[in-house]
Amino acid sequence: MKYRHSFKINALPKMPRLLQGHWRGIDAYRKEWHRYVANACLMNKPAKPLKYSRVWLVRASATICDFDNLVFSFKPVLDGLVLAGVLEDDAMENIIEQHYAFSKVKRKEQHITVTVEEA
User: Fold this and answer.
1) What DSSP letter does each residue of the chain carry, written as one string?
2) CB–CB of 34/92 below 8 Å?
3) CB burial readout 3-39, b (16+ within 10 A) else e
4) Residue 66 contacts by C-beta under 8 Å, 6 or more apart in sequence?
């Protein structure tokens, strides 16, 4: 049976224009997201990191963003999947399919949904 895991985080990763400031603050932000992802995967990790995978990333937000900002905002999430031991690497040769989507929701309902599947 192939590995498949889906999880929801009730927070939104920052958009590129909001990732400015001192490097320590940016580093703390990235580590915070790595912890969110690691905690979401804690009970459902593959036996060993996936060499090849498919990943679906959905941002449910009150404000609409353009596609390149949407993709960029998920960088710490993908890095978190690698650090958590779910993915071997987040390189394009390892993630053979990446799907990014957006859905508009009320501000109090904002979240991201991540699904990882072994390819």
Assistant:
1) ---EEEEEESS-PPPGGG--S-HHHHHHHHHHHHHHHHHHHTTS--SS-BSSEEEEEEEEESS---HHHHHHHTHHHHHHHHHTTSBS--STTTEEEEEEEEEE--GGG-EEEEEEEE-
2) no
3) bebebebeebbbbeeebeeeeeeeeebbeebbebbbe
4) none
Which pLDDT does position 99 carry in this prediction?
A: 97
Please, which pLDDT band fits residue 70 given cuts at 50, 70 and 90? Answer: very high
Judge whether 80 and 38 are in contact, CB under 8 Å.
yes
* pLDDT on residue 62: 96
Report the candidate in 9, 75, 89, 76 with the shortest Cα–Cα distance to residue 42.
Answer: 9
Structure tokens at 2: 């192939």
